[in-house]
């Protein structure tokens, strides 16, 4: 079922880009009734003539440039339909954009705004497709590919104003865009914060695609995007610094998680519907060592925003931390089916599960999980080294050597000492000595590399001394087979370099008590 939708497009010059934008909207599938309100911010080109593209197009001519927020507000005041789409003029929509955005918006009563994925947008809505979607056929192919993505929705705490579908009634409740943000930047952050404080969900429709040229209006006006961002951020901070919710966000932005949690507790009293307070309270609990408390807050955020990928992953990691002997398979399956897990999310999960199994000396599970992680982080030498040590402990020596070799290629020198151990256990003494010497040379202060080399050199010398009388015997009995210089010792004879686990935790993997 289609919708009656007012499309608001603010623009300044760029008539050709705007024409492409309007044409892509006129090609939308679905039974949608549109009015396209083109807010002309005092353009000096042929923008006014775009009203001739279709009877549903109206040009709202302004005598001065009102900026993005001001231009959108002119369109919102003129809008007649129940639903409103705000869209940049330097964009081109896939033909199913409106259908997918509408489906997402009406799928839950607390969903206040929906945005598509795009090639040029901030946050998790960005997909790495470059300018593939500039042409209609390529946008159609992208839409076909995205239709296979599961799940189709993703909760987030902010959306870019690039393209937003909302109800007019929602604007009536929370207010229009704040025009103090001028030509653009942070007016969308401000709007999204007001939506979240009112208890609304913000959702990315992952089956909807919008191609974006990127900062076309800023370039046309000769503005420097970097300086504009600094200026608008200062305005955002000035507006919200006295509010406990704003104080929470500002503290979190500067990395002060304890202050953010304290402000979130105050914000919970002022804004009881603000679900994001649970995110900051959870991180505060985690910082204080209250892992069950953190898990409870992440679970609360998921109840309010059931497709919140970050909260789902953090909940799993904190459950693992509080119950190290339990793998929450049901929670893992639920997260995989209901939340869009990025490569970063999956990498953290597989690493943590791999480390958990490693500590429990469950080598098959450790290997399986670390292999999943290594398949994502193909260029992470430390991870490959850890996988190699699990293979080594499981006595898969040849495979371990290959994995250590990859870690060495990725310039992780500690892998030399572990590859040396694997060579030693295979009876390849000279290869083992070479690796251990390289490890000691590259890491002269590493005690494990130094001790391994000393232990092996001592054994080689001892074995050579023991072999000397045998050589005299061999001259008398030349038919006797020559023994190896050094037989492989048990794994405990040479210490594996397992400090990788500690250093991986320092890189952000959730420690498991």
Structure commentary:
This protein is α/β, with parallel strands linked by helices. Helices cover 54% and strands 11% of the residues. It contains 22 helices and nine strands. The chain has helices at residues 15-26, 67-78, 97-105, 136-146, 168-174, 187-197, 216-221, 225-240, 244-253, 257-270, 276-287, 291-304, 309-322, 329-338, 343-359, 363-376, 381-393, 397-409, 414-425, 429-442, 447-476, 500-506; strands spanning 4-11, 33-40, 57-61, 83-87, 91-93, 111-118, 153-156, 163-167, 201-212. The strands form two sheets. The chain has a five-stranded mixed β-sheet. Strands 5, 6, 7 and 9 form a four-stranded mixed β-sheet that branches. Helix 1 links the parallel strand 1 (4-11) and strand 2 (33-40). Helix 12 runs antiparallel to helix 13 and helix 13 runs parallel beside helix 15. The two termini are 52 Å apart. Residues 475-494 and 498-513 have low confidence and may be disordered.
């Amino acid at each position: 079922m289609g919708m009656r939708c007012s499309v608001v497009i603010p623009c300044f010059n760029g008539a050709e880009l705007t024409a492409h934008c309007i044409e892509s909207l006129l090609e939308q599938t679905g039974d949608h009734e549109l009015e396209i309100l083109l807010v002309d911010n005092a353009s000096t080109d042929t923008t006014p003539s775009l009203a001739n593209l279709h009877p549903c197009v109206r040009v709202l001519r302004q005598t001065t440039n009102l900026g993005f927020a001001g231009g959108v507000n002119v369109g919102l005041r003129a809008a007649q339909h129940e639903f409103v789409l705000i869209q940049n003029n330097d964009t081109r929509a896939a033909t199913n954009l409106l259908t997918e955005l509408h489906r997402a918006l009406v799928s839950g009563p607390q969903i206040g705004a929906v945005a598509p994925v795009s090639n040029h947008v901030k946050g998790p809505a960005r997909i790495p497709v470059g300018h593939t979607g500039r042409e209609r056929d390529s946008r159609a192919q992208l839409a076909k590919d995205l239709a296979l993505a599961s799940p189709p929705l993703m909760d987030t705490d902010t959306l870019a104003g690039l393209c937003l579908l909302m109800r007019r009634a929602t604007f009536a409740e929370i207010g229009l865009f704040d025009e103090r943000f001028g030509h653009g930047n942070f007016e969308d952050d401000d709007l999204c914060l007001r939506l979240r404080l009112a208890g609304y969900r913000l959702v990315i429709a992952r089956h909807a695609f919008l191609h974006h040229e990127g900062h076309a209006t800023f370039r046309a006006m000769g503005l420097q995007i970097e300086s504009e961002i600094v200026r608008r951020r200062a305005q955002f901070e000035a507006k919200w610094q006295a509010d406990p919710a704003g104080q929470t966000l500002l503290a979190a932005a500067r990395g002060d998680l304890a202050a953010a949690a304290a402000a979130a507790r105050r914000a919970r009293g002022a804004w009881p519907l603000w679900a994001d307070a649970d995110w900051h309270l959870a991180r505060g609990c985690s910082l204080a060592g209250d892992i069950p408390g953190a898990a409870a807050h992440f679970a609360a955020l998921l109840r309010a925003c059931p497709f919140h990928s970050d909260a789902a992953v953090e909940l799993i990691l904190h459950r693992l931390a509080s119950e190290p002997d339990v793998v929450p398979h049901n929670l893992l399956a639920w997260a995989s089916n209901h939340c869009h897990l990025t490569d970063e999310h999956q990498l953290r999960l597989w690493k943590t599960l791999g480390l958990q199994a490693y500590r429990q000396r469950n080598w098959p599970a450790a290997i399986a999980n670390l292999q999943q992680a290594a398949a994502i982080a193909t260029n992470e030498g430390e991870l490959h080294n850890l996988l190699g040590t699990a293979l080594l402990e499981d006595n898969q020596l040849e495979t371990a050597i290959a994995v250590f070799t990859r870690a060495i290629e990725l310039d992780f020198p500690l892998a030399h000492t572990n590859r040396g151990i694997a060579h030693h256990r295979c009876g390849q003494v000279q290869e083992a000595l070479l690796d251990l010497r390289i490890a000691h040379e590259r890491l002269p202060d590493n005690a494990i590399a130094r001790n391994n080399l000393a232990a092996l050199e001592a054994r080689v010398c001892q074995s050579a001394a023991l072999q000397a009388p045998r050589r005299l015997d061999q001259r008398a009995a030349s038919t006797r087979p020559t023994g190896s210089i050094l037989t492989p010792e048990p794994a405990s004879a040479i210490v594996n370099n397992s400090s990788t686990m500690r250093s991986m935790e320092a890189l952000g993997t959730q420690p498991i008590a």
